[in-house]
Structures are given as structure tokens and as C-alpha cells.
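Run log // design_07
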């Protein structure tokens, strides 16, 4: 049985916590896209961790953690991350890395920085982890696959060829120091030693696991609105954030994905630039940011303060639809307990007309939120285990949103911990 855990919105919906929780019943957890540009925050018996590359199942002894071919693999970051958890007494996890994954090169990170500098105020708000230059090279067919590290001849020849074209850009577009092919080759030989113990034919491993009826979790990064095709292009990430891409980025048949858990946060937050219709500002935003998540809404990778907003039914309905949602996990609901009234965005007004369909970027820029105000519940709901025990106004909020987005909310997260979850039977 293959399940996917993905985000409906701009990311930071709490996927890490939901994956960590579902990983208890899983055998294998797979990262299938993205790289070290975003992070998951996980709170468990070992403490609080921010993971960037490792799948959120690494804290269980019974699971195998897989880096699929769709991931932007930053080898030193991965190795450091393994060390950072084992240094804190987490047992060394079982990790497999696809021989078809491609490698984030040191120059990808530099190009990311140089391009942001060059664009100045028109930049995309990149985390400068090299993700956009990495995926550009992958699709331009000048990337390096893990398997290529093991072919010395090919590697030498390719390093020289790639340096030639990169150095033209470095010299003439960015006016920065050039790459020395010998140095780059030595770095890649180091990378080979670091990654060798983990390299595996992942799709064949997963194929066998599916036959053996193992439970596999596909862990998405970011959310629908950051998808390069269906998101708020160009303020998107460079690999698909959709569950469907899980099949490609892990190397399994699409029809094997039986459950798609789409994570929606009870309010909105976003990082980076781009239209954010239900955004709030000033003291109202500061308070939600301060109280949000587990210790405030600040980026797990960058520490940047996140932009804040009310729950957006238009964006979330669209986000859930594109993911192919079977279950919604509704997270961070406990945070809203301080509000007397809670606005919810139920429509977008574009050119004088109200729509509930999420528009393309050019129209999105003109959209104004249509808000409906729901009553707050003014209590702390942490520790509640049963749906019926939630305050009536809290259930009203959940059921209102469920109706608006049109997908069943089967899990409600009311705290950052593994056990802070309320299951709701919707059959
Ligand atoms: P991800 O990238 O989707 O995993 O999202 P983040 O790592 O940004 O997670 C959001 C933050 O919310 C993290 O600090 C989590 O520990 C925290 N979190 C997750 N679920 C809940 C919840 O139900 N309540 C509270 N208060 N915090 C939560």
C-alpha cells in the first residue's frame, strides 16, 4: 500500500509531523522531489528536529528512509544531517539513495546566489540552496547522476565539458571566479566516497516492497501552490510538488498510490514573494506569527518570518483537487484558540466578479479576498483526543471548511507532538 503525504498550499502545512506520525505504521518512507531548500520540523521523544533532506521517518527503527530519483541530492548536507541526528542519540537510520538521483553541485548553489544578486529586487526569493540551477541542468541534460560518480572516465570528460559552459557564464554574466575542473573532480570523488554506502536501485527495491505488501509513504515537500505547472508560476519551486509526481520521483506505478493525505493548515502562511490573497499584516499578523506552529512561524531552513493569512478555501480546494486528495489532515488548529472571531477566505473578487476557482497568476494578482467571519472557541484544545470533545465552535470551523473545500477532513492535529491527533471517521 502506497500513501502520499503532500501539502495543499504554500508549504509549511505540518507535513513533517503527519509523516512522522504515519511512519509509525509504515515500512518505507520516500522523498520524491525537492531538495534541502525547505525543511520539516518534527517534535518527538528525541527532541525537536529540522530536517531538510532526510525523510521524516528516520526516527523509527523499523523504517527504511529512501531518497528517490526525483530529489535534488546535496550529498554533504545529507551526510551532515545524518550526523546531526545520530549526535543526538537517534539510532543510525537505514537510508537508501537512488542511483538515478542527481547531485546538487557546489556551482548550483553559487549560481543561485549570483542570479538572485543579478535580479536584485526582481528576485524569486530563492533559499539559495541551488535548487533552480540544479533542475535547470537536469532538464538541460547537463546534470550529474549518482551512478555517474562510479564511472571515472565519463566523469572526467563531463566535468571538463560542463566547466567550459559554466565558466562562460561566470566570467561574462556574473563576473565571478571560474570553476577549476580538477578541483571539481576531486570534490565529486569525495562525494562518491560519502554516498557509496547508501546507493541503491530504488525503483527495483520499491517494486519488490510493493509485491511484498509493505506500507510505503511518499513524503512531499512544499505544496500545490509551489508546483511549477499548477502553482503561482513563476513564484514556485523547480520540481513538482504533487502526489502524482511521487510515482515518477520514486519510480513506482501511479496506480499504486492508494491514499493521498493532503495537509492543510488551519490558517495560511507563505514564504517568499508571490500573490497571497488572504494575507494579513501589522499587529494581527504578528500575533498569529508569534503564536503559530510550534514556537512561531519562521522558516525551518532560513529562519525568515513567514507571511501570514487567514484560511483560504479557494486556494485549499484547488490545492486538494490537484493533489487528488483522499484525506485532509487539518493541522495547527490549536493555535487559533485565542481569537474571538476567525475570518475565512471563501472567494476571490477579480475584476468585480467573485469566483471560487483558483485563477492563473496574472488574475491572481488582482484578486481580493471575500471573507466570512466565524466565531472563535476561546479555549486551549491541546490534549483533546475525541472529535466530540472539541468545542462546538471549533467543530463548526472544521465542518465549514470541509464543506467549502469539498474533501473529507479525517485527521485534526491539535499540537506539534506525534500523539496530538484526532481521527475522524468519515465513512
Ligand atoms: P512542513 O514543512 O509541512 O512539515 O511544515 P513545518 O515544518 O513548517 O511545520 C509547521 C510547524 O508546526 C512545525 O513547527 C511543527 O512542529 C508545528 N506543528 C505541526 N502540527 C502542529 C499542530 O497541530 N499544532 C501546533 N501548535 N504546531 C504544529
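design_07 sequence
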Amino acid at each position: 500500500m502506497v500513501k502520499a503525504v503532500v501539502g495543499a498550499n504554500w508549504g509549511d502545512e505540518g507535513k513533517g509531523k503527519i509523516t512522522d506520525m504515519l511512519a509509525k505504521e509504515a515500512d518505507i518512507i520516500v522523498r520524491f522531489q525537492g531538495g534541502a531548500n525547505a525543511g520539516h520540523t518534527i517534535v518527538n521523544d528525541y527532541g525537536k528536529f529540522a530536517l531538510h533532506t532526510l525523510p521524516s521517518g528516520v526516527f523509527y527503527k523499523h523504517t527504511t528512509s529512501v531518497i528517490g530519483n526525483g530529489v535534488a541530492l546535496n550529498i554533504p548536507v545529507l551526510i551532515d544531517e545524518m550526523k546531526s541526528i545520530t549526535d543526538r542519540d537517534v539510532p543510525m537510520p537505514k537510508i537508501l539513495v537512488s542511483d538515478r538521483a542527481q547531485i546538487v553541485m557546489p556551482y548550483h548553489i553559487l549560481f543561485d546566489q549570483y542570479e538572485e544578486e543579478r535580479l536584485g529586487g526582481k528576485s524569486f526569493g530563492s533559499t539559495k540552496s541551488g535548487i533552480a540551477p540544479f533542475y535547470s541542468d537536469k532538464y538541460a541534460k547537463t546534470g550529474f547522476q549518482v551512478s555517474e560518480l562510479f564511472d571515472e572516465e565519463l566523469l572526467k570528460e563531463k566535468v571538463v565539458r560542463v566547466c567550459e559552459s559554466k565558466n562562460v557564464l561566470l566570467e561574462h554574466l556574473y563576473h565571478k571566479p571560474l570553476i577549476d575542473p580538477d578541483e571539481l573532480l576531486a570534490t565529486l570523488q569525495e562525494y562518491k566516497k560519502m554516498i557509496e554506502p547508501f546507493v541503491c536501485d530504488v525503483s527495483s527495491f520499491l517494486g519488490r516492497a510493493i509485491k511484498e505488501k509493505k506500507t510505503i509513504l511518499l513524503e512531499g515537500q512544499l505544496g500545490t501552490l509551489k508546483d511549477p505547472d499548477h502553482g503561482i508560476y513563476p513564484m514556485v519551486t523547480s520540481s513538482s510538488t504533487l502526489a502524482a509526481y511521487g510515482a515518477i520521483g520514486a519510480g513506482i506505478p501511479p496506480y499504486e498510490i492508494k491514499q493521498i493525505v493532503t495537509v492543510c493548515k488551519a490558517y495560511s502562511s507563505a514564504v517568499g514573494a508571490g500573490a497571497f490573497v488572504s494575507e494579513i499584516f501589522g499587529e494581527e499578523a504578528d500575533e498569529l506569527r508569534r503564536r503559530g506552529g510550534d514556537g512561531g512561524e519562521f522558516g525551518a531552513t532560513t529562519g525568515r518570518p513567514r507571511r501570514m493569512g487567514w484560511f483560504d478555501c479557494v486556494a485549499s480546494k484547488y490545492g486538494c483537487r490537484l493533489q487528488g486528495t483522499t484525506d485532509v489532515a487539518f493541522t495547527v488548529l490549536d493555535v487559533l484558540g485565542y481569537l474571538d472571531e476567525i475570518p475565512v477566505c471563501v472567494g476571490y473578487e477579480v475584476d468585480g466578479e467573485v469566483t471560487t476557482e483558483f485563477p492563473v497568476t496574472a488574475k491572481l494578482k488582482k484578486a481580493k479576498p471575500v471573507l466570512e467571519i466565524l466565531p472563535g472557541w476561546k479555549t486551549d484544545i491541546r490534549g483533546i483526543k475525541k472529535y466530540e470533545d472539541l468545542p462546538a465552535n471549533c467543530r463548526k470551523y472544521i465542518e465549514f471548511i470541509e464543506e467549502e473545500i469539498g474533501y473529507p477532513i479525517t485527521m485534526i492535529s491539535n499540537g506539534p507532538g506525534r500523539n496530538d491527533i484526532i481521527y475522524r471517521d468519515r465513512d
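The pocket of guanosine-5'-diphosphate is lined by residues 7, 11-17, 38, 40-41, 43, 293-294, 300, 331-332, 334-335, 413-416, 420 (CB under 6 Å).
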